[in-house]
Write a structure and sequence with these properties.
single chain, alpha/beta, 5-stranded mixed β-sheet, 5 helices
């Protein structure tokens, strides 16, 4: 006798969709996808990629910027692409879809800029697959703004050139 099929929870389902969306990403450093949903309904998606009509990292390489942090450590970021969360929010704006009161599903803790956009869009919950290597500032902002932040795993997502 075979085991009874167990459907994924809504969070598992939307994380699986975000993972599928990430396959369209055009930057190999952090192939990421994002889903915004409300009331068990998928509203919009986004993935990491260059602005429409501009060259992609996968085609022409990365556009790196180094950042020196207050504590003296240096990180390197590719600035050629728009983050998955930003692209999902842009899609909602383009399509006239309200994301107020929604949940955002993504691969890693949103960056500071994405966190600010998420807060101002009225998103009330963020579910991340893993933590970003410098997540503290975004985590604090979400806490102060009353946005629920949950992790599938507390493991830090590693990728090349961090």
């Amino acid at each position: 006798m075979s085991e009874k099929y167990v459907r994924p929870t809504w969070d598992e389902y939307f994380m699986q969709v975000a993972d599928a969306i990430s396959q369209r990403a055009t930057c190999d450093r952090g192939r990421s996808g994002c889903v915004i949903a409300r009331d068990k309904q998928l509203l919009v998606t986004g993935y990491v990629g260059s602005p429409a009509g501009l060259p992609h990292c996968d085609d022409v390489g990365h556009q790196f910027k180094k950042i020196i942090h207050e504590d003296g450590h240096t990180t390197q970021h590719c600035v050629r692409t728009v983050h998955a969360e930003q692209n999902a929010i842009c899609q909602a704006a383009k399509l006239g879809v309200s994301i107020n009161g929604a949940t955002l599903y993504c691969r890693m803790t949103p960056c500071r800029t994405c966190a600010m956009l998420i807060i101002n869009c009225g998103i009330i919950r963020v579910v991340c697959e893993k933590r970003y290597h410098s997540a503290e500032e975004s985590e604090k902002m979400f806490e102060q703004a009353g946005v629920s932040l949950e992790y599938v795993s507390r493991e830090i997502l590693e990728y090349s050139g961090q």
